[in-house]
Amino acid sequence: TARVWDSKGKLLATLQHQGSVNSASFSPNGEQIVTASDDKTARVWDSKGKLLATLQHQGSVNSASFSPNGEQIVTASDDKTALVYTVKGLHQLLAIGCQNLILYFEQNQKELEKFPVCQKQLEAKNY
């Protein structure tokens, strides 16, 4: 188990694994946490303790950390591998989804009205 505390000692979140936790670190923006465990996983959490992703290995994960820009996570494992994962934030995922739907939205303008986030994305890109 990893625990997140504020500077006054108040427990903010509990990050649970099935094995011992070997490391934990915050993303550069402080919005996410990555933990590494003997349960053969690294896990990505939001700062309130909600699990966002599970990264699998074949052996215990000894360490996991974010790159300085927060766009990658590197993990190191007893399975003799180090893996690099790309981190996509919600705004990046929404942008990709909206871009993939552009042809649909061009033919179905009324549907685009239901997705204000895509309206903003498409306007910003001048599609």
Q: Would you kindly provide a written description of the structure presented here, covering whatever features stand out?
A:
The protein is an alpha+beta fold and 127 residues long. Helices cover 24% and strands 39% of the residues. The protein is built from four helices and nine strands. It has helices at 90-100, 102-107, 109-112, 116-125; strands at 2-5, 11-15, 21-26, 32-37, 41-46, 51-56, 61-66, 72-77, 82-86. The protein has a four-stranded antiparallel beta sheet with strand order 3-4-5-6, with no helix packed on it. It is elongated, with a radius of gyration of 19 Å. The relative contact order is 0.12.
Give a quick account of the main beta sheet: strands, pairing sense, barrel closure. 4 strands, antiparallel
Based on DSSP secondary structure assignment, what is the total number of beta strands? 9
Global structural class:
alpha+beta
Tell the overall outline: elongated
Q: Report strand order across the widest sheet.
A: 3-4-5-6
What Rg, in angstroms, do the CA atoms define? 19 Å
Uncertain residue segments: none
**How far apart are the termini?**
47 Å
Helical percentage: 10-25%
The helix count comes to 4
* Mean pLDDT score: 87
What is the chain-wise order of helices and strands? EEEEEEEEEHHHH
How large a portion of the residues is in β-strands, by DSSP E? 35-45%
